[in-house]
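fold-stage: in
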Amino acid sequence: MDPKKVDEGKMSGDGDIGSVMGFSGFGKKARTFDFDAIFEQTRRTAIERSQRVLEERQKETQMEEDGESSKSVKPSVHSQKEKLAAASSRVHESDSSSGSDSDSDSELIGPPVPPQHAAQEDEDELVGPPLPPGYSGSTAHSDDDDEEEAQDDDDDDNPVKKIPDTHEITLQHGTKTVSALGLDPSGARLVTGGYDYDVRFWDFAGMDQALQAFRSLQPCECHQIKSLQYSITGDVILVVSGNAQAKVLDRDGFNVMECVKGDQYIVDMANTKGHTAMLNCGCWHPKIKEEFMTCSNDGTVRTWDLNSEKKHKSVFKPRSLQGKKVTPTCCTYSRDGKLIAAGCQDGTIQIWDRNLSVHTKFHCRQAHTPGSDTSCLSFSYDGMTLASRGGDDTLKTWDIRNFRKPVNVATGLTNYFSMTDCCFSPDDKLLVTGTSVKKDGGNGKLVFFDRGSFQRVYEIEVTNASVVRCLWHPKLNQIMVGTGNGLAKVYYDPVKSHRGAKLCVVKSQRKEKQAETLTQDYIITPHALPMFREARQRSTRKQLEKDRLDPKKSHKPEPPVSGPGRGGRVAAHGGTLSSFIVKNIALDKTDDSNPREAILRHAKDASENPYWVAPAYTQTQPEPVFAEESEEDEEADKEPEWKKRKI
């Protein structure tokens, strides 16, 4: 077969395919590329370009240095060129040495390293972009910078510097002791309770500088409020008062649940459904949002479930060394919720495992003076330390791993209340509590102790009354204080604190709106005929705004004129007859309560000096002729009626 014909057939076939597919070139040999040569050419081009850029930059910097006095002698352009050449030669040598092994990690890709950065890498092996040309190569700071950094480090290490006490606001709860404080987890709302049976709700975002509570109620009628606490989700509030039944309210103060009352005639308190005596304290579980705990004078600590109000969940019964019933005065959960601690009236602190209610896990017999009320127990954020505030004027810390004796003791902290608080700072380095004072006996203080050394490092004089409740919120970094004279104070720092009180102090006080009254009664007649239908009454506010623009309606009434009168106005007691009569009527002090006496008072004067009726009839009036009465007739008239009847 002729090869020419075969080639012609192929070409015709390629033409057909090209017309169908839309492109040609079928059957041609593909072009081959030498990637090594391409990479080498690209690398050399990049090196040359970078050298040109560096030379231009060096010329510019040299021209700037000629115009200014340079502080440090810099290398000349020639030396830098030599260094660049040496660097490029090193690059060429490395390329030639690594030509055989293309996978070597030592091969440089891209432009050469600037000389300043190369010198720094040789000395310190710094990581990051190269330093600018005008920067002095030393990395050491000046003495001033070192002192400032050291000062900042000291401030960070000193926990006293973190206390937010530069500013404060005062919330007026009432006139009696604020015995309960509660702040929701987000720090948006504060709730206060007191000896006046009131619970007040405060919204930081909704308040202005007037600092008024948006709701006040008495959930437990005539019982003092002992404790208030928001749940971990912040949607409900536990209210513990002086009665035997704890209540749970929602965020707006409406009742959600009320614990059942137990049978006081049953001896074993474990067999009753609820408490039978006054409550002392209560708190929510830190992990389970439906569980809370209460302790009472009936000698029990009970846990409850929010969904089952008919019966408690479990019962813990504190016992003395002799096995007798002991009254718990305060209770709390550990941070992980696995332990339950209670402070008792016999001075003991007893801790149970939450799932084992029979025997105590930790028990300290002589934690505080017997007979004094342990007012507060608080676990540290790390869960290893327990702080107890005693009625014996002491504050103690305990290591629960060695619970026989206290780690630190502070004395001389007067305590007159059974709910005086103690709490840890958010960084766990400070411990805070309040002191009590008698009336006109000085100022109540908020005292701060260092957790490690237990030295009194700081104190704040709050007011001339006892400091009962204190709360240091970890998110807001603000301290809430409840006092014995009905105040709730909030301490904050504009820099270190967040939200909370900072939201309401920047809002200007709202102007009070005038009382809006209906201008006229509006009768709704939907089926009346159009001619009898009244026009729809517009809003009172708009009508008041229109009246305000009306010069006649908005004109202030003129005050009454005193004296002879001025400006064309006559005084109220002017020369007119009506004003004279009104004045005399107002001055008439006679008593007309008995009309007969009031008329007869003028009878003698009317008979002696007739003025109205008698002179008109003087000519026609006959003279009266009366028969003279004898003495016998007079005596007969004086006789009684029964004698006359007999006659």
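fold-stage: in (second)
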Amino acid sequence: MSLSQTNFLSSSLLSSSHDLRIPYSRAVLSYPRIQTHRILCAAKRTGKRRYPSERRKLRTEQKEAVAKVKNKLEGVWRLSKLGVPVGDDPGKDFLGISEGLLQAIAKVIEFPVASMLPEEAFSVIRKSFDARKILKEAKFVYTVDLDVKTLLELEPRAHDFIFRLEPKIGLIEHVPTEKSVSGDLISVVNDCKRINSETASGEYEPQIINGSGDPHHHGGGRSKPKIAVVGGGPSGLFAALVLAEFGADVTLIERGQAVEERGRDIGALVVRKILDMESNFCFGEGGAGTWSDGKLVTRIGKNSATVLAVLKTLVRFGAPDNILINGKPHLGTDKLVPLLRNFRHYLQSAGVTIKFGTRVDDLLVEDSRVVGVRVSDSTNQLQTTSQNLKVDAVVLAVGHSARDTYEMLHSRNVELIPKDFAVGLRIEHPQELINSIQYSDLANEVLKGRGKVPVADYKVVQYVNDKTEDLSQSSSKRSCYSFCMCPGGQVVLTSTNPTELCINGMSFSRRSSKWANAALVVTVSAKDFDVLNLKGPLAGIEFQREFERRAAIMGGGDFTVPVQRVTDFLQNKLSETPLPPSSYRLGVKSANLHELFPAHITEALRESISMFEKELPGFISEEALLHGVETRTSSPVRIPRSNETYESTSLKGLYPVGEGAGYAGGIVSAAVDGMFSGFAVAKSFDLFDGTIESVIGKAQGAVLVKY
């Protein structure tokens, strides 16, 4: 989610019209140094609230939509925003056509008898849950495709009703039969190869620059280009998949372990407090998102061909089909582990060499071009020997916690640019409290993830204007927002060094735990780094380390997390024991979290929490516990690259991609970026002939995604 967003966002899962006030004691404080404004100008205007220019634009778009329809009786009509009250819907896990949905469809197409409409003519494209307070009643909201041919074959009397149907922006859209529908990524690449074969008669002229060793051969005795993909997270996996499908000789290098061994390493951390610095919640197969919530929500276009290609690929490897339909798709760690195992097996069958427990220590550079990587065994801390791997290109797909990689790149004079990110605390509530705040009387329908409605979540944003002596005398805006909200989840340790302490949240697929947690974070930038006299492209990394070390000291070591009741944090006092229970399994310790951050960050957090209470009454609760510290919300640097070739602007042969390079945030956007980079690298070696956009659409811009 872009930080340029200016309106307060509450979750689409807000409480119903019953205004439930939770009787928890709370304190709402005011601070003269910070002014908080709720900004409404960015809210979407509808009806009479639209500006004249917006009305004219809407009328123009409406006329264009009508003109595009060549034959109403062919193709597909897409019907959006079909509301079905909770009482008329089978529930969140039902993705078929119910009687209540047929009634909503009949109303839109003005068909008199809903029961006469054949279910076979309709398919659900999207289903979400809407329980906002402004609604009279909570409802499920659908997007449905109506197949005209099937409908008329099974119910000919619908002919006149379809003939009278007109497009309506945002509600009714005609999709021609010839409009392509994205398949999974493997199918997309195979289609590209088929087209290349038809247009070029199978000619293949790969560009080999530095490949060496025992090359595989491809047609005519020519060698395949050798590509090293560094990092086994979403961007690395999808880049490797594309390149392997196009015929490159791919080596995937991951410093952590495969999910099976990684799970055991995480178990040793949680149970015995033994941290493996190379295989943990951050490092290992699947990346940091594997042992997180597994969110597949993205702001780069959930119905775009690129996102659908990623989601359909995940389904191919074992994800449930419902991720293609759910408005807020989510997997959970338990679903990701077998999916990643299947993904790995497919890559290996496609010829990809996968090296787990292998760390890239350096790049091999000749004449300002990468010609290989120097690697070592990350499982043996005593080993000092290394190995050189010669390759033609390196796809750098590390995560945002690969700090030693950033330092290596800096020593190699690879251009790095400091990037804004966010730091803060993770708040945890009883999940039943969040259900009550959001759903009111419907809270009893959650049933720990097995009920009719989803486990409640929330998303909140506030902007504060701060003016401090430390930063500047001019007022500047700073956003405070919830990040990686994990309903029915737990707080986990994401440290990669025993002297540092940082945390995150995770959930399993059912989201059945008794806690809900989310990070509450504040944006920070170069001016914040300056306050601590931190300069240069790696200043953000040192900024993170500073507060992670402070948190470790405040917790007393041994990965114990410093915590404070929300009510006590607002009043700046130490929480008395016993503390509310926490899902964090390595131990918590009462501490004054005001001593953690600079005053302006603490003030911004306090003021924002007070404002969040106005949107979510009961958010400030004696049972709510703040945990410190959350620092790794996104990469603290960006590695500049070409918008067309994805190649580094400062080192040829290096292709920085994904979250660690500063071009994604979350599983889906990282996978999409890896996919685009795979096509770009394939094109640079003449494995792919054509434009990337013509195959999978336009690439997203570099964004900071809050998920």
